[in-house]
Amino acid sequence: MALTGVLRPGHAQLRVLNLEEGVHHYRDVLGMVETGRDEQGRVYLKCWDERDHNSLVLREADRAGIDFVGFKVLDKATLDKLEGDLRAYGLATERIPAGELLATGERVRFRLPSGHDIELYAEKQAVGNGLQVLNPAPWTKASENGIAPVRLDHCLLYGPNIAEVQKIFCDVLGFYLVERVLTPDGAGNVAIWLSCSHKVHDIAFVEHPEPGKLHHLSFLLESWEEVLRAADIMAMNNVQVDIGPTRHGVTRGCTIYAWDPSGNRFETFMGGYQPYPDYEPTTWTFDGLGAGGGLDYPQRKLHESFLSVVT
Ligand code: M3P
Ligand code: FE
């Protein structure tokens, strides 16, 4: 099998200021499926076409932002191996027992030098996508609820030391660099897009002085028409839009950035392209991010909120 090691981003735990407002947004407007609640009061959701029990966990807190991002790995042997590799690299790891997150096996957690907590896990209950595996229909009723993305696709995180973060993902966890934006002097990167798969990114980072920040969690749609329909649904539900609908030059994704009721940015997007690990990374100059259309290809400007609004 070609796809081994780290498979995909599997879950993110998001802090919301008001739980039921957050549930309304992610379940009824974005159109995820609620799959459980735990004794801590956390709410679990998945996108309709995801097969594992949950991909988004909402926790009520007095400040918005992200608690952790979890990546599913191939199996338990891979989990043990990657834990050893992280430790050998010099990172501290912590084991969180199975069941601490509903329907989820043991997790290995570590903190990046950007201040973000990342987890690896091998097991999560497969609840299916509502379709039988034998002679299935192409979609279900759940795919007609709200914006209805097919999966949690990636996140963009803001924090310090992204050169070191890139080394951890690429040298220890088997990711590769797909695109990057150079610093104004061209000596380093201000932004990196990393993939562990055939996706244009599974996680991305922007260099930022404050650690542990969330720029956006992103959800995949399958057509430009669905992105435009998402914009209609956002407007009908008074969801505040940040940028779009438009296209990113970086990754070529066709996108909307918008805010949930707690001020966490989320993205609904389609497209991009399918890179391979042997591709030379695409490089954008710092000016290219704005005037070159990296952020917003048609408008060719660096929207002020891109660098300043994070949770
Ligand atoms: C994405 C995406 C920028 C490009 C961002 C890309 C900030 O968020 O999902 O493709 O230039
Ligand atoms: Fe994105």
Features of the shown structure:
311 residues; alpha/beta; 2,3-Dihydroxybiphenyl 1,2-Dioxygenase, domain 1; 2 domains; 9-stranded mixed sheet; 8-stranded mixed sheet; 6 helices; globular; binds (2E,4E)-2-hydroxy-6-oxohepta-2,4-dienoic acid; binds fe (iii) ion
Briefly, what is this?
It contains 6 helices and 17 strands. The chain has helices at 19-29, 76-89, 162-172, 224-236, 286-290, 304-308; strands at 6-16, 33-37, 43-46, 56-60, 65-73, 93-96, 107-111, 117-121, 151-159, 176-182, 189-195, 203-207, 213-220, 240-247, 253-259, 265-271, 282-284.
Tell me what you see in this structure:
With about 300 residues, the protein is an alpha/beta fold. It folds into two domains: about 5-125, 2,3-Dihydroxybiphenyl 1,2-Dioxygenase, domain 1 (Roll); about 150-310, 2,3-Dihydroxybiphenyl 1,2-Dioxygenase, domain 1. The chain is built from six helices and 17 strands. The strands form two sheets. It has a nine-stranded mixed sheet with strand order 14-15-16-13-9-12-11-10-17. An eight-stranded mixed sheet has the order 2-3-4-1-5-8-7-6, with helices on one face. A hairpin with a 5-residue loop joins strand 7 and strand 8 (about 115-120). It is globular, with a radius of gyration of 18 Å. The N and C termini lie far apart (about 40 Å). The model has no long low-confidence stretch (mean pLDDT about 95). The chain binds (2E,4E)-2-hydroxy-6-oxohepta-2,4-dienoic acid and fe (iii) ion (FE). The site of fe (iii) ion has 5 residues, from strand 9 and strand 13.
